[in-house]
Amino acid sequence: MGKLVGGPFGMLHGRVGNLVAYVLNGENVMRQIGRSEKPLTKARKVNCEKMTVVNRFLNPALPFIRLGFRFEAAGTNRNAYNEAVSYNKMNALQGEYPNISMDYSKVLVSKGSLPVAKQPQIERTEQGILFTWDTSNIPTEQNYDRAMLLVSYPEMGEMSYLPSGSMRIEGKDLVPVDWAHRNARMETYISFINPEGTKVSDSVYVGSIAAAEQQPLKIETENQQGIDTAISKVPGNRVEPIIPNLKIKQERSRLWFLEALKNRTAPS
């Protein structure tokens, strides 16, 4: 049910029929809800796919994106996330419908007036992703800007990020990466925010790190020549396998090996 908040000349809030009203950035906004029964035109299908692709990429880092685009939305009736979606939909997509995808090198995860990072680089370490950047000729008033670092795992639909990391003058910072993401493909970005939180820089695409190859499980034996299971006959014409003494690195591999021997048919 819709309500007039503040009397007959106040703001409408709530639902009236298929319309819903709410307050956004101090303005009364009304929109239509419900599903359209009209078949989608090709143009609408293209737009829907673009929105899906961009939202799938940006949404996992929603707090970071809101911080990075908050000043682009200031003074408008739009929100920061809408601004980020709008920019990247217009500038960071590639391909034709139905094969539209992100062009990661053109993505912005923050947008503002501060100077961007100079010559940023990345390195995969045991702890995570190490970001470095050039600290020469930095104006004094920008020494204490904080790094905003983001690592995306596109195939997993997840992200790791630091919204306020090391100072610009320090020239490096680390984004921790847990074991679940350690070998995933990564796309990386850096920007800066001032100490007061009133200005940010445009983000810079630092680069991509390819997914690391998974190493297969290995089984070690004390006697490599005895790895083939011997089959021998015992008194009473009963046949049973003789299992070599194995050192199994993984419990799963050990159980699999024993099960295979159990089901093996001995020669007559």
What does this structure look like?
- It is globular, with a radius of gyration of 29 Å.
- The termini are far apart.
- A hairpin with a 3-residue loop joins strand 15 (230-234) and strand 16 (238-242).
- The chain contains five helices and 17 strands.
- Residues 219-250 have low confidence and may be disordered.
- 19% of the residues lie in helices and 31% in strands.
- It has helices spanning 42-58, 62-68, 70-73, 80-91, 251-262, and strands at residues 3-5, 11-16, 19-24, 27-32, 93-94, 101-102, 121-124, 128-132, 146-153, 158-162, 172-176, 186-193, 204-209, 219-221, 230-234, 238-242, 246-248.
- The chain folds into three domains: 3-32, no CATH class; 42-209, Immunoglobulin-like; 219-262, no CATH class.
- The protein has 268 residues and is of the alpha+beta class.
- The longest helix is centred in the N-terminal third of the chain and has 17 residues, at 42-58.
- The protein has a four-stranded antiparallel beta sheet with strand order 1-2-3-4, with no helix packed on it.
- InterPro entries: DUF6266.
